[in-house]
Design goal:
about 60 residues; about 90% helix; CsbD family protein; YjbJ_sf; CsbD
């Protein structure tokens, strides 16, 4: 797991909390902030996932040569 995956997952979790608190307190701005945080977190996690996949592919190529 790389730093983008970790930070992306953490951001998604913060977003879930903000969304839940926003709903519970009838605060649409906080709920929206949570939604946006989750999307940003997922995007960062996706970047990390792609980096890991590329690293794994590079290892496979080295093993086969």
């Amino acid at each position: 797991m790389n730093k983008d995956q970790v930070k992306g997952t953490a951001e998604k979790m913060k977003g879930k909390v903000n969304e839940a608190v926003g709903r519970a307190t009838d605060n649409p701005a906080r709920e929206l902030k949570g939604d946006l945080q989750q999307e940003a977190g997922q995007a960062r996690k996706n970047v990390g996932d792609m980096k890991e996949a590329a690293k794994d592919m590079a290892k496979d190529v080295k093993r086969h040569h």
